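Checklist before submission:
- one chain only
- standard amino acids only
- sequence pasted in full

Submission:
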Amino acid sequence: MTKKRAIVFSGGRLSEVDLQQIQPEDFIIGADKGALFLIEHGITPHISVGDFDSITPQEKERVESASKRMLACDPVLKDLTDTELALEIAIDEQADHVLMLGVTGTRMDHTLANVQILVRAMQHHINCAIMDAHNYIELTGSTLEIKPMGYTYTSLLPMTAEVTGINLEGFMYPLHNATLKMGQSRAVSNKLTASKGTISIESGLLLVIQSKD
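Returned file contents:
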């Protein structure tokens, strides 16, 4: 089966650098203001989705005319955020990898909700990541390989009450059969020291954040 990647541009912090992440075969989803960002930079979304309450009626018309498809919803009656709606579209499109851009920003509630969306992606066996100017965020329930990507730190945070059987290889501070409980910060700000690092766990869900200042 051919692999399919979806790339989501949402309404948080975006810059022209983010456009460099687009690959020729990507299925491009614009969520709310993220759709306008794409169109303003000459990129045609395969679909634009959201309530579009962050843009003007004139800008919404521009998004509708420039997108291949558009799915608009009521800002009051909808149950999902625009970013989660975008993920649902990626699921419907049978994407096996999703890269989400513009999903972090000044609204901490939206940022945390978007991080938790990684759990939903995992439930659908989708390899999903969040990327911004300073962070690359993934979720694992088994094994994850870390390669140098220009980030300084690698931090681990439990997304379940506890994560057991944690093993780290290729890092400055290794772990062997360790347990992390919610609220503990002992695995923050580790550093990759090898050409690649391996993170494996036995149970739970582990958030892996590569970051730089």
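Reviewer check: Residues 5-133 form a domain with the Rossmann fold fold (CATH 3.40.50.10240).
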